[in-house]
Write a structure and sequence with these properties.
The structure is a single chain. By secondary structure, the protein is an alpha+beta fold. It folds into three domains: about 20-45 and about 335-364, no CATH class; about 50-70 and about 90-230 and about 310-325, no CATH class; about 235-310. Helix content is about 65%, strand content about 10%. The protein contains 14 helices and six strands. The strands form two sheets. A four-stranded antiparallel sheet has the order 4-5-1-6. Strands 2-3 form a two-stranded antiparallel ribbon. A hairpin with a 2-residue loop joins strand 2 (about 115-120) and strand 3.
Length: about 375
């Protein structure tokens, strides 16, 4: 049994040696192919434009659960049709939902509409993308006509449709919008570190200053969106309470004026009718004053609730203009090209004779 195994190992070693001899025999061809691959890799790397990546890292300081403890405020909210359950309980907007916000249509449209400075000229990110749409990018062209060829063919048969709706909550998107959305998805990224609790955001572009501006704008937009979602209910309650306070305050001031006019018109009169009317006016005035005072207190409570519900973001790594390019990694491209040239040429040398034999056997 051992002799059979040893014989098998010896045969495998002989086969491997034969393969190595065959490769060594064609070393000139393999060397030439590797050189050609290296030259192609150098040309490919030189054609690639420099890309710069700007990034930022921040931590959302989530507020602790806060309860108003005010039945009157809850009652007033119910009158306004506002649910205080989300305000008084845990109403955090978890960071795991941040990517959903970034990928939403409103966020992307706002980001594309934001202004950036390019060569002392102010233009929107949308216009910047469209102006650079026709700039030649070798890698992008290769991707477009290889991996992206099916989408390109399908796009030829699609009209530039635009859906129009009377509802303001339904967005109208064009083919251009979808193309720009894909470009954003390709160069913009948002990552969440669940363990450490920080958020990282980055954008890559040929213009290093543009990449920094886009990250800064995207960070501001995202944080504003989170704040908007978080304080929506408490802000609605504050607006409702403030309106009620202003209305009741005007009514109270009107009653004060009525009392003053009534007293001025009845100077030196001490009849029972006068005293009865004056007492009734002062009673209404006292009730109105109590209502105004309660509403003033509730307005302050609502303001505090808005402040408590407003999340705070701590920036760990602020946005900066990158100094070094993030891509292309030209040395890596050349090394990979040489390796591929060596593998392909070696495979050709090893498979050439077996393939010829197979073809001959098929023909015969």
């Amino acid at each position: 049994m051992n002799e059979i195994q040893n014989r098998q190992i010896a045969e495998d070693e002989i086969d491997l040696i034969q393969l190595l001899k065959k490769v060594f025999k064609e070393k000139k061809l393999i060397f030439k192919c590797s050189i050609i691959a290296a030259i192609a890799g150098v040309a490919f790397a030189l054609f690639q434009p420099n890309q710069y990546t700007s990034s930022t890292t921040f931590i959302p300081q989530l507020s602790s659960d806060v309860k108003t403890g005010s039945s009157s405020l809850s009652g007033l909210a119910s009158l306004a049709g506002i649910n205080l359950g989300g305000i008084e309980g845990s109403s955090e907007f978890p960071p795991t939902l941040y990517p959903q916000v970034v990928e939403s249509v409103p966020f992307r449209l706002e980001l594309l509409s934001s202004n950036i400075q390019v060569n002392n000229e102010e233009l929107t990110l949308r216009d910047y993308f469209l102006e650079n749409k026709n700039s030649f990018n070798f890698l992008g062209t290769v991707k477009k006509y290889t991996i992206g060829l099916p989408s390109l063919i399908l796009g030829l048969f699609k009209a530039d449709e635009k859906f129009v709706s009377d509802s303001s909550s339904i967005y109208s998107l064009t083919k251009e919008d979808n193309e720009l959305f894909r470009k954003l998805s390709e160069f913009f990224s948002l990552s969440i570190n669940d363990k450490e609790g920080f958020i990282s955001m980055s954008f890559t572009d040929e213009n290093k200053k543009v990449s920094a501006q886009v990250v800064q704008t995207a960070q501001t937009l995202l944080q504003n969106k989170i704040i908007e979602f978080k304080v929506k209910s408490s802000k609605e309650l504050l607006d409702f309470t403030s309106n009620q306070y202003n209305e009741k305050k005007k009514a109270f001031e009107k009653l004060q004026d009525e009392r003053a006019v009534f007293v001025d018109n009845n100077i030196n009169i001490s009849s029972s009718l006068f005293q009865n009317k004056l007492s009734r006016i002062e009673s209404e005035l006292s009730i109105a004053q109590n209502v105004v005072q309660q509403l003033a207190s509730q307005v302050e409570q609502a303001k505090l609730q808005v402040n408590k519900n407003t999340p705070v973001f701590t920036t760990i790594k602020p946005v900066s203009v990158p100094f070094e390019r993030s891509s292309p990694k030209r040395a890596q491209i050349v090394i990979i090209s040489i390796f591929l040239g060596f593998i392909i040429s070696s495979g050709y040398v090893l498979l050439k004779e077996p393939l010829i034999e197979i073809i001959k056997s098929i023909k015969s």
